Amino acid sequence: MTADDSYDRLDDDDYPAYTMGRAAAMLGTTQGFLRAIGEARLITPLRSEGGHRRYSRYQLRIAARARELVDQGTPIEAACRIIILEDQLEEAQRINAEYRRAAEAAVATEAAEAPTAD
Question: For the segment 48-82, what is each residue's pLDDT rounded down to a tens digit?
Fold first, then answer.
């Protein structure tokens, strides 16, 4: 990958652009905090060729949410579990909405195709 290719990926929320030190500084936390949420499997940073952790903007948003909960007094393991459950709920609601739209479309199609009584 060339430098020009890297610049094109900076808009990608999943591109691991941030080192652990930079990510910790951006979040106002420690590198140990990032390691802890990694050990709790809340986020799994990618590794550079040299083995260093790299974080994406998406992962930083999740880490920021974890920090918010921890700052409110929630133990880190509980904060990670809360975030995982929130994510699962959001995904279930998204799937439910898709099923609802599909069912409504099927009912509308059936109604449109139903023979009319003369």
Answer: 889 999 999 999 999 999 999 999 999 999 999 99
Structure tokens at 86: 């929130």
Residue with tokens 């109604």: 111
Task: Report the SS3 class of residue 19.
Answer: strand
Cβ(12)–Cβ(32) under 8 Å? no
- Residue of 55, 59, 60, 49 lying closest to 16 (CA atoms): 55
Print burial letters for 80-117: b (CB count within 10 Å at least 16), e (below 16).
Answer: beebeeeeeeeeeeeeeeeeeeeeeeeeeeeeeeeeee
3-class secondary-structure state, position 13: coil
- Tokens for 3, please give them: 């430098």
pTM score: 0.74
